[in-house]
């Protein structure tokens, strides 16, 4: 009853093993895997450590060996970092420049905010982060000092010095 039985190729499970050069070849051009004896094939079918076919062991790719011993020309792909996550504090700087410009600190913060925007366009992430920290520092200082002066003015208007 099994005289007409033939080996049928199995559907691939998961991603193919090996490098792109070996996977891209048609099956007829790939080197054949050694077929094991039936006794050892049963062991491989039960073993979960085998990454290849259940009846054939995984053959190491010859290209992986060549990569270790040969120096192949490489292609460098530059991936620019995402600069949209760098905050430039532009609106806060404009507010400080217009309303709370204590000793021109709001103007300096605005200048650094514009430098952050320029460096983000040039994909200079490290420079943009440093200038963003400086702009934030000047914005905090300008806001704090201007708020402190406004509070002092209201206190002296409420309680003039002639009462003391």
Describe, in plain words, how this protein is organized in 3D.
The protein has 164 residues and is mostly helical. The protein has a domain at 88-159. It has 6 helices and no strands. The protein has helices at residues 20-23, 38-46, 62-69, 90-98, 105-121, 125-158. The longest helix has 34 residues, at 125-158. The protein is elongated. InterPro entries: CD225/Dispanin_fam, IFITM_antiviral_protein. Belongs to the CD225/Dispanin family. Its main location: membrane. This is IFM10 protein. The chain crosses the membrane at residues 89-114, 135-157.
Give a topology summary.
Elements: H1 20-23, H2 38-46, H3 62-69, H4 90-98, H5 105-121, H6 125-158
Helix pairs in contact: 4-5, 5-6
Major sheet characteristics: none
Percent of sequence in beta strands: under 5%
> How are helices and strands ordered from N to C?
HHHHHH
Output mean pLDDT: 74
Shape: elongated
Helix content: 40-55%
Count the DSSP helices: 6
- Low-pLDDT sequence parts: 41-53
Give short descriptive properties of this protein:
mainly alpha; 164 residues; 49% helix
Quick summary:
The chain is an all-alpha fold and 164 residues long. It has helices at residues 20-23, 38-46, 62-69, 90-98, 105-121, 125-158. The protein has a domain at 88-159.
